[in-house]
Design goal:
With about 180 residues, the protein is α/β, with parallel strands linked by helices. It has a single domain, classed as Rossmann fold (3-Layer(aba) Sandwich). About 30% of the residues lie in helices and about 25% in strands. The chain has a six-stranded mixed sheet, sandwiched between helices. The longest helix has 17 residues.
């Protein structure tokens, strides 16, 4: 069983919580309270246990984000396709994850709310941006359950457990060298 840490990052009200709730509980609520700090959920799929960190999108919690994405094997950078500002801000998150996140972190740009008709971000434009930056792009709708499972399937298909080691500052007894001691 592989444990994969996944972090959801993006502006407030782009649908991070809705995506996580749809994936884990197959549930959608039209109105979610804003996440404070972060919320943790988990789900096992195809012999993979996803450890999902849903981060707060409010600016006042931005400084906490590195604490949640540190050591993440996958980052879902979520934007609302009806809000161009959320796409522009996603670019900053992508840059930060690439610079400060785990070296082999799978980054997926998720254009949420594709069920709505007033798109401000064109699929082709977002896809080109993702390709230029060497990341994945998928449009989704937590409300209509469009591509939610496919997001996590991308992670399963691209996860390489052979390169996924614990972060250097974590204590993991599996990796500690046994010290032999002489008596008194």
């Amino acid at each position: 069983m592989n444990n994969i840490k996944v972090v959801l990052i993006g502006d407030t009200a782009v649908g991070k919580t809705s995506i996580a709730d749809r994936f884990v509980n197959n549930n959608f609520s039209e109105f979610n309270e804003p996440t404070i700090g972060a919320a943790f959920l988990s789900k096992t799929l195809e012999n993979v246990k996803f450890e999902i960190w849903d981060t707060a999108g409010q600016e006042r919690y931005r400084a906490l984000a590195p604490m949640y994405y540190r050591g993440a094997s996958a980052a879902l950078i979520v934007f609302d396709i009806t809000q161009s500002d959320s796409f522009n801000n996603a670019a900053g998150w992508i840059k930060e994850i690439k610079e400060r996140g785990k070296e082999n972190c799978i980054i997926i740009l998720v254009g949420n709310k594709c069920d709505l008709s007033n798109h401000q971000i064109d699929y082709k434009y977002a896809k080109e941006y993702a390709d230029e930056n060497g990341i994945f792009f998928i449009k989704a709708s937590a409300k209509d359950n469009i591509n939610i499972d496919n997001i996590f399937q991308i992670i399963i298909n691209n996860y390489d457990s052979s390169t996924d080691f614990p972060p250097r500052n974590d204590v993991n007894l599996m990796y500690k060298k046994k010290v032999e001691r002489k008596c008194c």
